[in-house]
């Protein structure tokens, strides 16, 4: 496999690690905006995951004039009618904080029993190139909101997201295990199936 460089339009270290772990073994060279500190933040003004992922991918692709992949993702909680959804990153306000976001979710769900704590992670990926129609794929992962945070692995809402099939939160499992089942991994599988055709 030749060198195929993809820039991921993210400044999130947790996402960056997962993209590298999944895509580098497939022969991709992965860079992220952490490698381009001078590029300003893209303001996420959209009301859907796709709008925000398009905004990030298309803005950075037009700026750098190379193919760019963006991820917009979030946690959708049944008892909160799908909230925080696209507002996941700043659910507890500015500056964005995983710890405060998790505390806010736990406080809002209170003592609701297991049957009422259903939730899923959603990930929309948009791959953009300056003179091409963008490619859009999505993936989800179902689970439940734990009663308290468990584990130090992962990032974001991982310590409070319990996966029944694993009997653990995502904060308790290795990167390998998460990357077999996650919303991001599921979206990347769909991207993988379409990327060769799209690049032609
Ligand atoms: O696998 C995940 N495990 C735990 N939490 C997660 C995951 N995937 C998304 N999330 C949470 C983190 C953040 O609160 C929001 C994403 O917000 P989102 O705008 O897509 O990302 P971000 O602002 O952290 O980085 P960037 O926009 O630079 O890609 O959902
Ligand atoms: Mg963001």
TrEMBL record:
- What keywords does the record list, in alphabetical order? Hydrolase, Magnesium, Metal-binding, Nucleotide metabolism, Nucleotide-binding
Q: Which residues bind substrate?
A: 10-15, 73, 155-158, 178, 183-184
Residues noted as binding Mg(2+) in the record, renumbered to the chain: 72
> What remark does the entry make about the cofactor?
Binds 1 Mg(2+) ion per subunit.
Q: Which GO terms describe its biological process?
A: nucleotide metabolic process; purine nucleoside triphosphate catabolic process
Q: Name one GO molecular function term.
A: XTP diphosphatase activity
What are its E.C. numbers?
3.6.1.66
Instruction: Please verify whether the record's keywords include Cell cycle.
Output: no
Entries under CDD domains matching the protein: HAM1 (cd00515)
Identify the cofactor(s).
Answer: Mg(2+)
Active site: which residues? 72 (proton acceptor)
Describe the reaction catalysed, as an equation.
Answer: XTP + H2O = XMP + diphosphate + H(+); ITP + H2O = IMP + diphosphate + H(+); dITP + H2O = dIMP + diphosphate + H(+)
Against Pfam families, the record matches this protein to:
Ham1p_like
Q: Which GO terms describe its cellular component?
A: cytosol
Q: Which family does it belong to?
A: Belongs to the HAM1 NTPase family.
Q: What does this protein do?
A: Pyrophosphatase that catalyzes the hydrolysis of nucleoside triphosphates to their monophosphate derivatives, with a high preference for the non-canonical purine nucleotides XTP (xanthosine triphosphate), dITP (deoxyinosine triphosphate) and ITP. Seems to function as a house-cleaning enzyme that removes non-canonical purine nucleotides from the nucleotide pool, thus preventing their incorporation into DNA/RNA and avoiding chromosomal lesions.
What interactions and quaternary structure are annotated?
Homodimer.
What this protein is called in its record is dITP/XTP pyrophosphatase
Source taxonomy lineage?
Bacteria, Bacillati, Bacillota, Bacilli, Lactobacillales
């Amino acid at each position: 496999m030749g060198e195929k460089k993809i820039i991921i339009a993210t400044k999130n270290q947790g996402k960056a690690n997962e993209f590298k772990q999944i895509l580098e073994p497939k022969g991709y060279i992965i860079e992220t905006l952490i490698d381009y500190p001078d590029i300003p933040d893209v303001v996420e003004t959209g009301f859907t995951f796709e709008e925000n992922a398009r905004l990030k991918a298309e803005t950075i692709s037009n700026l750098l004039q190379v193919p760019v992949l963006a991820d917009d993702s979030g946690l959708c909680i049944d008892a909160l009618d799908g909230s925080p959804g696209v507002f996941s990153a700043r659910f507890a306000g500015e500056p964005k904080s995983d710890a405060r976001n998790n505390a806010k979710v736990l406080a809002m769900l209170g003592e609701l029993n297991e049957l009422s704590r259903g939730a899923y992670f959603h990930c929309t990926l948009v791959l953009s190139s300056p003179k091409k129609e963008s490619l859009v794929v999505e993936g989800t992962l179902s689970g439940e909101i734990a009663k308290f945070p468990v584990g130090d692995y992962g990032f974001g809402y991982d310590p409070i997201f319990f996966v029944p099939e694993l009997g653990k939160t995502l904060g308790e499992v290795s990167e390998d295990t998460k990357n077999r089942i996650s919303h991001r991994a599921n979206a990347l599988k769909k991207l993988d199936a379409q990327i060769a055709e799209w690049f032609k």
